[in-house]
Amino acid sequence: MPLRPLDQIPVPPPQPDDDYRFAGPDGPIVFRGLKALLGAADVSKAGDRHAGLAAADEVTREAARTLLAGLTLAHLHERPLTTAAGRVDDVMRVNDDVDQEVYAEIAAETLGGLKDRLLAASGAEAKRLGRGLTGVAAAAVAKLCDVHELILVSRRIVNSARARTLLGAPGTLASRLQPNHPTDDPRGIALLCYWGLSIAAGDALIGVNPAIDTVDSVSAVLRLLDTIRRRTGAPTQICVLSHIKTQLACLDRGAPVEILFQSLAGTEATNLAEFDITVALLDRGHETMAARGPLVGEEAKQFMYFETGQGSEFSYGRHEGIDMTTTEALCYGLARRYDPYMVNNVTGFIGPETHLDNFELIIASLQDLFMGKLLGLPMGIGTSYTLHANSGLEGQQAATELLAAGGATYFMDVALGTDRMLAYFDTSGHDDQTLREIHGRLPGREFLEWCLGRGILARDADGLVVRGPTWGRPDQFVSGADELDDLIAATPGLHGFETAGPRPADAVSRRVRWHQAVGRQAVRTPLDPARLAGLGPLRPIGTRAATLEEHLAAPALGALPGAGFETLRAEPHRVQILVSDGLSAAAVHANVPEIVPLVREGLAARGVSSGVPLVARHGRVKLAAPVAERLAADVVVHLIGERPGGDVRASRSLSAYLLYRLPDDVRPAAAAASGNPGIRHEYSVISNIHDGGLAPVEAAATIVEKVTAILEHRAAGNRLEALLAGA
Amino acid sequence: MATLVGLDFGSTTSSCLVAAAAVRRNAATGRMELADVRERFRSELAFTPLAGEQLDVPGLEALVDGWLAAARLDPDDVIGGGALLTGLTARRGNAAALAAAVRRRLVDAVVAVADDPCLESWLAFQGSAAALSRRSPDRWFLHLDIGGGTTNVAVAKAGGVRATACVAIGARHVRLAIGTTVLAGHSSLGRAVLERLGLPLAVGADLGAAGVERIAAWYLDLLHALVGSATGGPPLASDPLTAAHVQVPLPGDLPAAAVDAAVTLSGGVGQLVYDLVAGRDVPGVGGFGDIGTSLARGLVDDPRCRDRWREHRPDAGGRATVAGLLRHTTRVSGASLHLPDAAVLPLADVPIVADLHAACDEGAVRGAVGLAARGRRGAGLRITGLRSAAEVRAFGARLADAFATVGIPGDVPVVLLLDTDAGKALGLCATRWGGLPMRLLAIDELDLPDARFVALGRPRDGVVPVTFHGLTT
């Protein structure tokens, strides 16, 4: 069906904010406008608290919920949420593209009444009602539901989709294989594919987040996945999760873009400024795939894939005053326009600034499943965590058990739960099989037959599907031990293929958890000046993040100058060295003593003076800017700990951000090159500094050469590289 | 993608193999490496053209030109490879002219022209049995690459070659009319063996099945004597015939455990052994016009081998793989190097004059720099064990002092070859952060074999292709 042009979607004009009043025990509780009411009605989550939207206490929250429950759908519909400037953006506009017949039927229903109706309805009826709802309405109902209610309604709704294979049929639980590799090494990607397939994962899709988002590289990975699919015979579909423009260019070159992917946000501002997409671009992608996607002509009916997650709009500062649950539901309303093959939610990926702990993560995931299914989407939930949040494996697993009960269409398979490229943690294929066994689910029909044929799964004497003799054996897909060795040698984070039932063997789990524990400790380890004693005199400075919790939860505070800054004055040194813990003080302890003396020696040998190094606790990358301004330095070498992933060595990984403070006469050139007329600083970055990446001693030499080049060419970042390439 | 070229000039046949490879950092080890080595072109086998007892160099050049054209090679993409002159070909009087002809054609690439039997042994092992050996790191391996003219021997453990040897045992020293036992020709060494065994020398004479078996048995006895002499057995016979066959003996100090090494095989005869063991059809005596099938049957039936080749079998069934060969011929450096002037590359045949370790004192460093100063073509210093910044600074200062004291001509390249990731830092420290006027390169993250020469190609994708030759083990 053709997509309805945006200007033909009927959208009521924006209204001034109403005051919603509730008679509380100690006086009236007032919410100014629908956004405030929706924010306060939700479970309190970190992102909404930072945005000032969460209710201050339970009384306020229940007051908001009571008021919300009494509003009609027509009330919501007649007050479309707007941007800060009062405009209805394109995401909200698309959300209003509802089934008008259904909407007319329920417009007078209150949200509380709608919730009761959904709880009493069959799955098919709930799904029909969902077609009359915007994302805002779905989010409003979700805020009124408790855990049982979120699961009950989700469970009943069946949203299936068909690409090469059928996803989301009743009784199935699919798996989305994500063989990410930090350098897109085809050997590593192949091994992770084979491993996943050997544990019956990958029936929903095999999809790689590319490390290198170029047409050449993405095309190469697409062809690799296509080869693997054909070689193994696995009935599934493939995708490389690069930007939609890159994928369309790959398709133009004949690469097998079977499923078109794009990350979505719930506000037009985020989509435009951060994801570089518009509704028009998404429309073009959809139309292109419908006309000439590789699966056209097969049975495929759907071919789009979207990824979302609560809080991206907030973390980019472009949430327009709308809470995280509602912006997430607005994403679903946008996704619905394209009748996608799958939608994946990765709530928890960002970190503690949006979801502080396991409880927030679990509730958010259940809300997402409820809203997505109600809006008709084949929802997979990639409940995620990072090592700098208070969430972890147990919370994630509790969430997935509840989500499986709620009829999640699929979960992710990230090998052993550790993403080797994105430094976050997701579900594994072992988890997927465990959930299938606990909840009595099977892979999709075509994939099940393939697994039975290969002995990955088998039927027991009673005809029940059980794990088969080749389950967990990636070597079944390679020519011999030599090839397997070759693949293993290129893949980090392999802690063993051994299994115990559907789970990794305990020895494997112990290694995975050990690496996580060391990474988590790296975040929590306080920056210890004694570990830097060999560097000679240091100058401690502070940031606005007074505690570790503030530092982790509110990234902006670590970029603002705190105690000690007031004593800094302009100095004659051209270079200043700043050391910050960032997200791994352990990385600072491990590398900085190796780097700083050599950098100072090298700079001095080249006639460049540097000041006494500064050390900042709870610092973030942009702290270098006020340091450069206060000390009038040309260059600030900012050594800062990186966010730890699932590898002990990488938890000691440091970056060097080389800030160049632009002189007045250089600023026009920098402005022209960057497109930012207000530009004041340029950055060159040297990352992955650790024993196992760029050795610290080599990093020191590289820093000296790069600083010399910055000062000589009066440029940093892309402008410097362009000058060097042209030199 | 980078391109590797392998040229093999054997006793009887010659061929060309072209492979494509990616240069990338291994995310597991953090090292730069050549990955995804895939065969792109394989020529037909051609008879090695001869002009009397000499190589027909113009004929060989035409052959090479034809292959390179058929492979549609862009010379700019070629980063390395190898030209192997093996067996009898390497012993022809004008072998050096062939090597020079190859170098002329692949001038910018790092080409190892291996008329070097130790390198052949090393390559044969790396190309077929190295992965197997790495998977059984506690087991010793004896690898025999038995071809037409020579048998190259490698003794290895955990994927590393510990000793090599070369002996003139091969299928083509005595040639037979195909499918018969009638003598069709012989090499000078083959003639000597026939004489030793009292067999007829005239072309057209029938050696008989028993005669061919005796020849094969003599060769196998020599092979056992060679291996036995290095693993506690009696020394090799001192007669001239034995001495003429043993081109490079095994060192006599191999550990006792090597006596029971697992045996792996490659080369034409090696493949025949695995075919026989697998029950595949193998022609009878003289089936390939030489004594290869008899050597293979002799090995299979030899009780002294105690079936030690059945224990471990190379995945490629004894065929040295192109990928294996080419991958091990050319290495790549790490990505952070000291290379102030890339125009100095390529550098061919730089002699490696000294080995230094992080803990070396000033005297050792000055001595090594003194050796480097003597060569006009440049010199390589192999440096191991540098890790911490303190070690690099201290060692760099010692080098800088030695450079300043000894005085290296400004146009003579000195190449520091490091096993660790410290090339850029050491290069800068050793030149006093660029203050010493000299042409110093520091190339790092290398597996450093015990070789006499190193060649460096032009940088590709930020790394430098490196080839070692003149292996001494």
CA distance, first residue to last residue of chain A: 54 Å
- Residues in helices of chain A, as a percent range: 40-55%
The chain pair with the largest interface is:
A-B, 41 and 36 residues
Helix content of chain B: 25-40%
Multimerization status: heterodimer
Provide the gyration radius of chain B in Å: 24 Å
Placed side by side, the strands forming the largest sheet of chain A appear as 17-19-18-20-21-22
Mean pLDDT of chain B, to the nearest integer, reads: 84
Our count of helices of chain B gives 15
Rg of chain A to the nearest angstrom?
A: 27 Å
The rough form of chain A would be described as globular
Folded structure, characterized:
The complex is a heterodimer of chains A (727) and B (473). Chain A has 727 residues and is α/β, with parallel strands linked by helices. Chain A contains 29 helices and 22 strands. In chain A, strands 17-19-18-20-21-22 form a 6-stranded mixed beta sheet, sandwiched between helices. Chain A has a 4-stranded parallel beta sheet with strand order 7-6-5-12, with helices on one face. In chain A, strand 18 (575-580), helix 25 (585-605) and strand 19 form a beta-alpha-beta unit. In chain A, helix 12 packs across helix 13 (244-252) and helix 25 (585-605) crosses helix 28. The longest helix of chain A has 21 residues, at 585-605. Chain A is globular, with a radius of gyration of 27 Å. The relative contact order of chain A is 0.08. The mean pLDDT of chain A is 95. Chain B is an alpha/beta fold and 473 residues long. Chain B is built from 15 helices and 22 strands. Chain B has a 7-stranded mixed beta sheet with strand order 16-22-21-17-18-19-20. In chain B, helix 4 crosses helix 12, helix 7 crosses helix 10 (292-301) and helix 9 (267-277) crosses helix 10 (292-301).
Would you kindly provide a brief summary of this structure?
By secondary structure, chain A is α/β, with parallel strands linked by helices. In chain A, the strands form 7 sheets. A 6-stranded mixed β-sheet of chain A has the order 17-19-18-20-21-22, with helices on both faces. A 4-stranded parallel β-sheet of chain A has the order 7-6-5-12, with helices on one face. A 4-stranded parallel β-sheet of chain A has the order 8-9-10-11. In chain A, helix 25 links the parallel strand 18 (575-580) and strand 19 (614-616).
